[in-house]
């Protein structure tokens, strides 16, 4: 799915100016007159970022942001703020907003921030896909293979694992080989790194 910058602002002139700015940077974008319109069409699979005015008629940017969080949206949110809104924007950062930019802002600064937010979203998606792949590989392990894997990750030698599980060393070696094959790794170090990715 194409990554899109969603511009949510109740001021049509600002929406148009921001859309023009992003198009000159080859950033696909879509404009919305308010949080209500955006939320009515929002889908969990959307990729990109949101540029959200913190103060709007009707639903405020903060209210929109809170509802997106409630729905589990992972889209990075950049707030556009006036001078008096900075404390609110800082509070939003603590709730997971990506960043904020204060009016009047430099066009290039905003465009760079949008590009950074989209890159962050793409990286998040890749990490999630990697986690899903690792989870799928883990489901192929038998109970005994999982036991052997955990002891391998504890740094134990085959002989110690054999004693711990009351099985032969040859059986440990067979399980170890299957764990590496199913997890598609070549060493215990690589296996540990893979599972660190999963747990991070």
UniProtKB/TrEMBL annotation:
<dbReference type="InterPro" id="IPR016032">
    <property type="entry name" value="Sig_transdc_resp-reg_C-effctor"/>
</dbReference>
<keyword id="KW-0238">DNA-binding</keyword>
<dbReference type="InterPro" id="IPR036388">
    <property type="entry name" value="WH-like_DNA-bd_sf"/>
</dbReference>
<keyword id="KW-0805">Transcription regulation</keyword>
<feature type="domain" description="HTH luxR-type">
    <location>
        <begin position="134"/>
        <end position="199"/>
    </location>
</feature>
<dbReference type="InterPro" id="IPR000792">
    <property type="entry name" value="Tscrpt_reg_LuxR_C"/>
</dbReference>
<dbReference type="Pfam" id="PF00196">
    <property type="entry name" value="GerE"/>
</dbReference>
<keyword id="KW-0597">Phosphoprotein</keyword>
<dbReference type="Pfam" id="PF00072">
    <property type="entry name" value="Response_reg"/>
</dbReference>
<dbReference type="InterPro" id="IPR001789">
    <property type="entry name" value="Sig_transdc_resp-reg_receiver"/>
</dbReference>
<feature type="domain" description="Response regulatory">
    <location>
        <begin position="4"/>
        <end position="118"/>
    </location>
</feature>
<feature type="modified residue" description="4-aspartylphosphate">
    <location>
        <position position="53"/>
    </location>
</feature>
<keyword id="KW-0804">Transcription</keyword>
<dbReference type="InterPro" id="IPR011006">
    <property type="entry name" value="CheY-like_superfamily"/>
</dbReference>
<protein>
    <submittedName>
        <fullName>Response regulator transcription factor</fullName>
    </submittedName>
</protein>
């Amino acid at each position: 799915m194409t990554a899109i910058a969603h511009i949510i602002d109740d001021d049509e002139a600002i929406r148009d100016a921001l859309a023009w700015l992003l198009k000159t940077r080859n950033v696909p974008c879509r404009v919305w007159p308010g949080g209500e319109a955006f939320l009515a069409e929002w889908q969990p699979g959307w990729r990109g970022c949101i540029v959200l005015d913190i103060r709007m008629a009707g639903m405020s940017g903060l209210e929109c942001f809170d509802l997106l969080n409630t729905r589990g949206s992972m889209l990075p949110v950049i707030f556009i703020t006036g001078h008096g809104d900075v404390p609110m924007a800082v509070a939003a950062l603590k709730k997971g907003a990506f960043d904020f930019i204060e009016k009047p802002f430099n066009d290039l600064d905003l465009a760079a921030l949008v590009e950074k937010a989209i890159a962050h979203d793409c990286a998040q998606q890749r990490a999630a896909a990697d986690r899903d792949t690792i989870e799928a590989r883990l489901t192929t392990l038998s109970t005994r293979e999982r036991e052997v894997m955990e002891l391998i990750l504890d740094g134990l030698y085959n002989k110690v694992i054999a004693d711990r599980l009351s099985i032969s060393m040859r059986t440990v070696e067979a399980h170890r080989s299957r764990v590496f094959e199913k997890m598609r790794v070549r060493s215990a170090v690589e296996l540990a790194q893979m599972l660190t990715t999963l747990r991070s």
